[in-house]
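Support request, please re-run this one:
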Amino acid sequence: MHVSLYIGHHKVGSTSLQVFLSQNVVRLIRHGILYPYTEMQGAASVAARMLAGDRASALTANIREPHSALAYQFMSEAAGFPIPAQFTLLPPRQQMIRAIRSQVAELKPKAVVLCSEAFSNFGAVKPELIDEVTRIFPDATFSVYGALRRPDEYLASWHNQRVKVCEKPGPLAGEGWRHYEATIHFNYRLAVEDWLIRVPGEGKVLRNYADILSAGGSEADFTAHSGIDFPADMTPARRANKSLHPALVEIARQGNHTLTRPEAHALVQFLLKHEAAFDLPPARDIEMFGADSRRAMFEAFLPSHAWLSGITGQAAFFPDIDAMLSCRPLPQAEATRAALAALTDDRIAPLPARAKEFLAHLRATPNPIEV
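Re-run finished. Output below.
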C-alpha cells in the first residue's frame, strides 16, 4: 500500500483539492484509493454516498477536510494548538487513528491520501507528530507532496484569509509582514524540512505554486505527482475558499477589531457577497507592502530560497524571485478609500447598526490604513 501525504502549504489550492477528493470519495474507493474519514460525520457521509453515489455538493469542514481535523487534533493534544472553529466535536486522536486503520483493514486499498495544509505546522509545533502519522501505516511506502508560493503573494493571501475568518491580525502595511517572519508562513524550511527528513522513501516533491497553476491547478498537479494512479472520471471541484478583494481587506480587518464577532462576520460576508457591485480596481494592481517592505522581505527570504533551490536541485525554486521587489501600481490606501466611497448608506443598509456606524467612522478617517 502506498500513502501519499499532501502537506500544504496554506493558500496554494488545498481547499479545492480537498473538495475534489471528498466529493469523489466513492469513485476513489472503487479504484482502490482511500481518502479516509476521521470521525462520525465523515463516516455517515461516506455511507450515504455509497448508497446514492458521488455528487458535487456543499460539505462541512469535518467531511471535506478530515485530515485537517486530524492535524489540528494532533497539535491540540500535543501542544495546546488551537483548533479552528469550523471543526466541531472532534474525537481524540487515538480514536481518529483507529478509524483510519479500520478503513484500511476493511477496504484494503492500494493507496491512501492524507491531505491537509495544516500538516505544514508540524515542524514548528512538534516534529515528532510526523512520525505519529507514518506509524498509522506500518507496512506502507510513502511519498510527500508540498506546494509553496512566492512569499509576497503568499503573505498577502494568508493575511486576507485570516481577516476573512474574523481573526484579529495587526495591519500588513509597513512592517506588518514581520509578524510572520519566524513562522511557517515565511520560513518555508520550517514548514517542509522535517517532512522531507522524517518520512521514509525518496518520493518527495516540492512544487512552485506558479507551476501548479500552469499545470491546471491543485487537483491536476497533485494527481500527476502523487505517485498514485487516479481514475479518469472524477467530478471537478466546486470553487472553494473565495478571498476578499484586497481593497476590502483593511476595512474588514479593522471591523474584526472593533465589532463583536457576529457583527464582524456579517460585515465580511456582506463584502464577499457584494464586492462585484462596488466597481473596485483590479485586485492584481493593488500594492499591499510598499518598496521598503518589499526590499526587507526579499532580503530576509533569501536564505530560505537558497535552501529550497538547493534541496530541489534548481537554480532558483522561484525563478521570478526578483519580482518580490516590484511594487504594484495602486497603493492599498488608495484602493481602500475607493472601496469606502463605494460603501454608500443605501448599499450598506442591510448590515447591523454597529457595522454601519463603524463604516461611517472609517469613511470619515483621512487615512483608513493603520500602520
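The chain is about 50% helix and 10% strand. The beta strands are 2-6, 33-34, 111-115, 141-148, 203-208, 286-287, 330-331.
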